[in-house]
Amino acid sequence: METRMVMKREQEEHLSQMSHSMDLSSQIKKKTFTSSEEEASYADYYPIIPGDVMSVKEILGKFPRHRTWEVLKETMAADEEEYYRDKWTMFGNEAEKVEIGVIRNQQLIRTRIDRMALRKQAEKKASAHMKYLEDLSQKAPDFPVPLRAHTVWEGMTVKLSCTVQGYPPPKVTWYKDGVPLSVAHQPWNYSLQQKFGLNSLEIRRCSAEDAGKYEVVAKSPLGKATTFGTLVVNSYQGAMAGSERSQTPALVLEQEAQFGSTFPPTWVREGESLVLKCGFTSAPLPFQQEVSWFRDGVQLHHSSRVDIKTASEMASITLRGIHKEDEGVYSVRLRTWDGVQEHSAFVYVKDASAAVVGGPASPLAVQVHDVNKDYVFLTWKPPSADGATPVEGYFVERLDIGEGQWVRCNDQVQKMCHYPVFGLKEGTMYQFRVRSVNQAGEGRPSKATEPVLTADPLEHTRTMVVKVDEWREIIITKDQLEGQIKVPFPPTDVHACEVSDTYVVLSWTEPEPRGREPLTFYVEQSLTGKNSWRLANMDKVVNSPRFPVFDLEKGKEYCFRVRSVNKYGVSDPSEPSMPISLGKTQAAPASPHSVQPFRDTDTSVLLQWQEPKEKDDILGYYLYYSEAGKQNWQTINNKPVTKTRFTVHGLKTQREYVFRVKSVSRAGNSKYSDESSSILVKSAIHVPSPPSAIALLLCSGSEMVLTWRAPAWNGGDPVRGYYLDQRDKSVAMWREVNVKPVKERQFKVCNLADGHYYQFRVFAANLAGIGKPSEPSEAFLCEKWTMPQPGCPYDLEFREVRHDSLVLLWEAPLYEGQSPVTGYMVEISQGDQSESWTPLNDKPIPDTLYRVPGLQDGQTYRFRVSAVNEAGVGRASLTSEPITAETQPGTKNIEIGVDNDGFIFLAYEAAQMTDSGEFLWSKNYRDAIDAARARVESKQNRSVLTFSDPTEEDLGLYTAEMSDNPNQSSSYNFTAEDLERLKELSWQIRNPLIALKSGWQVDISEKGEVRLWLQTESLSKDAELRLIFNDREISSTPHRKINFDKAKGLVEILFDQLSQEDEGSYTAQLRDGRAKNQFTLVFVDEKFRQALALAAANKRDHQRKSGPYFLEFLSWIVTEDCELVIKCKVTNVNKDTTLKWFKEGMAVTEAVYDQSSGVSTLTVPQVTKKEAGSYKAVVADGRGEDVSTLELLDDEYDKLLQQLSKQCALSAGPLRIQCTPEGFKLYCSLKYYLSYLKTGWHFKERRIDQDARNKPGSSMQKVWIEIFNPTENDKGKYTVELFDGKDTHQRHLDLSGQAFSDALLEYQRLKQVAIAEKNRAKVTKGLPDVVAIMEGKSLCLTCFIDGDPAPEIFWLRNDRELISQNQFSITKEPKCSTLTVTNVTMEDSGKYSIFVRNKYGSQTVNVTVGVYKYGDKPPANAVEIVD
Predict the structure, then answer these.
(1) What share of the chain is helix, strand, coil (3-state, %, to 5)?
(2) pLDDT, tens only, 135-169
(3) What are residue 1173's DSSP bridge partners?
(4) β-bridge pairing 746-749 and 735-736
């Protein structure tokens, strides 16, 4: 037995050693040699194959052979034969030694690989730094010195030069007339040079073929820049600006679609929908059907929020539920034959309304990083608008999509724009959002992130797919290959992956191999240098290799280590991390500087700024603007811009603005930069657009007089002149006509050949340069005009364009024909393409202007004019430009008025004003204003024409217009009626009256002082006053004081005591410069007497109030309870003040006096005649006394009774019925009834008089009427009227139907009860309650009885009936019965009763008989009977 036990123990030891050996083999990693910076993949391991998958591995045969493979085979055999166990043990020991050797070799090789990896990493960082430096210096292509136009003579040499800059260096390409320029074709004539950014093209021996438009294009990855210049080559044949050689007709392509209408910069509020549209000029061709939309260069696709549509007329995109992240540059691209047409505009997303008043805006760009099983890391960008106070931090919220409820993640406000979220559920879809917080409260939430699934990010590395053949594959996981692992290994590489000033996020590498069982982790922490480890995740389960630690102290260093945990146990701790401490509080970024605005368009400004020196953490910039001087700052962008330049749209033309910028980082926003200099919003200057409509006005055979239409747009600067080119129809080249610019739009071209056809074109020039040429005119024949009809009018212009009318102007023709022009015919055509013309006038118009009425709002029209003479109607003018009948916003008409100096004026205010714009005043649109008769003054956007002394000579039509925008114009017809009306107003202004605010008033103060006063408009300090009393001037005296407040225009006369001598008239004469006026008060007769009496009364009352006095005199009221209350109120009392009441000279003590309020009351609960009389109250102390009386007599007493009656009547309740044995009793309850209140009863609107059946009555609280023996005839409506002396009050009762039946039934019942009660047997008189009698005496008890029929009589003693026998004797008579007890003894004491009854009822009367002995005293409460 012992030997068997020893062998058993040895076998267990061998099994243990073998198991340890196998565990060691499965735990040691066998890796290919990679650096420590590289991640190990699953393919780096030689798997330890468990026996249950051995057959599969043998089939595959793809795994490298290893000794462990053979060991596993032997393990399978060992399960069958115990013999191999010893060999397994020996093999395990040998394998352990081999493993240790392999590990040592791995460490040596890893060290070498690490050095190589470090070298590669350093080279990579150096390369990245160089690229970073290059990126810092990157700049888009630009031409600091552009090409300029040149004009040379044929055969000369010209050099076209420009300077280009940009990094990386751009590629430069030259073009001539849109075709790339090839120097190789003419190397003897063309020479291209490029050196240090200077690009030049030298053309030797210029010819006509070299003339044209030269263009230089510079391209780089950052953009494209273009500059161009025109080369004009002069020759004896004329000037040539391009090749006019005939070309072989090209293939005519089908007309492609282009963008017609496009979307401008757009503003949309957060949460609303955004719709952008682009119209096409024609239906898109098949290859143009796909229109692409982009935001900030990223293509947008159709989704639940994005709807993209392309139709035959337009393309559109709709974004629903817009967010601030959707702000940016939106582009639309359309394919064309030549490439792509693109349009872009910025879309601004404005903040939605704040969640609370003064609350912050929502953060944006919330992103999820480092997703694990129970942990994610969030980042976001701060909002642009702080609200009423700066943003203090943020709250993070999460949404479990399965639960559908948002939950806050952090209890404390997170100041930085990043946060680790821990404690999530594995395999769950989450969304996250962030709210800003300031002192006003929480703001709106940000846009929620896309749904995120919490999972193990390394799960894919633990799965291997092995393809067996074309149709079969086997999926193997590491968990299957690590079946021998039980207690896990410790994690490795514990370090901090995120460090903030409030938390540290730890990261580590899971143990490998990790085993099949799920892993969790314990995180331990200790102060550096102290080996006192404690658990950091006390109540938190850590499922992923990430853990945020929040409760660390600043300034202290900590070490951390981690243990792996599964169901089999806890691993050893990992190696401690390097010392870790909280980071420094990240400061907000520095502000940008050097903010500079530049002119762009009439509604936009280009803004540039310099980034701060420390720019590593900057995410972008927020921009703000305000009108200059107002400090009303508005946010421009709600999504940070990353560049240092931005075009600000949506500004108001001709307004001055200032700008400032904030830097944005994860630490928040910087302070505002310094304000930029102010800039006036207006368009930058460009060259003017081409002129148009060249017309021939006169031809003499060698000369032609031409005119043309001014450019539609002057480029932001007035046109300074025009240049003309001409060519013979048979010659292709153009020749310059004038060297100096022509100021007027009319020019005489000389030295022409008779009989030749000529074409002309015109250039307009301003300060920015010469614009493009007009379209060539038609070919004019140079031939002397001899036709009898006049030539064509010219220079058609519009003025005063309104929604229903306009004014058309034109110039008379230069050629009149055989006779002078007598008038003009005007024609109109509706639409901009129609050739249907309608005459506007039946007879010729003598003037060269015509007001066209009756236009339709929004319709487009064209006009033309023909001159008329005796020979007939001449040639029509060129058709005018299309004009739309509409009133432009802000349009104002000329106003007429009189200024402060009395001059008549006309004033006009322009809706828009430019720097170069001037006001032009004229009479009848043609005649200049005579400077001797009127002057013009203009200030900002308002101009005033002021007449010196207008007469009938100045009457007529006056017009005002802007020099650079004739569309801004207006007119006014100055008529004789206007002149008469305004001259009268002018006289009133030049001879003004002082305006009166309030006429003479009489005020009397509480002291009896009298004040006479009046008030005018405010007067200057030089104003004068004269006061006249009864035709003599008066001044201040001790009795009468005079005050004059000029600023308020107030005149006062103060009397301390008014007397008869002050009666009369008072006149105030005022003068203030040219203005004057006078005002009179007639203070006599009744008006004076009333004022005198009131002043005296007030004076007496004031003296009375020097001591205690009555603030409210004696008065009476009747309360709702019908009580009479007499009260008064005194004031100005002290502790010695007394208040006494008297009636008819007798003191009244029932009055109540509350000294704190001063109120004293006397309450009479019930008024009778004795309350009538004279009442008096006296308040007195050492300062004096005051008396108040109340005469409650005669009329006043009747008034009291009437008021009391009214209150009693108002207190009356509803009319009710009470049934009695006699009949009905109708009654009404009152709080109080008095005889003054007259009552009357009505039945069916007829008065009820008192008779045998009806009897009215009253008491202190009721009035009633009794109706005896009611019948059916008494059914109906009853009314009681209560008359209080003035008003009648009624109460009603409808006694009919069921109510009457019920009442009648109750009356009959009560009547029967009364009859029964009357005839019932009863004892009417007789026995006392207690009787005392002396022993031996005779007791006689007698009772009187009533009832019908006669009742039966029974006597009882102690409830037992007595009969007449022995000592008891009973007598019974119809109305009387007697019980006699002779010779009473003590035993006769007790209760004696008489019981009477008949058919209506019965009654019992009891008497207690007490017998006492001789010498004793009877009871005190007993009636003693003496025999």
Answers:
(1) 15, 45, 40
(2) 666 788 888 888 888 888 877 888 899 999 888 88
(3) 1192
(4) unpaired
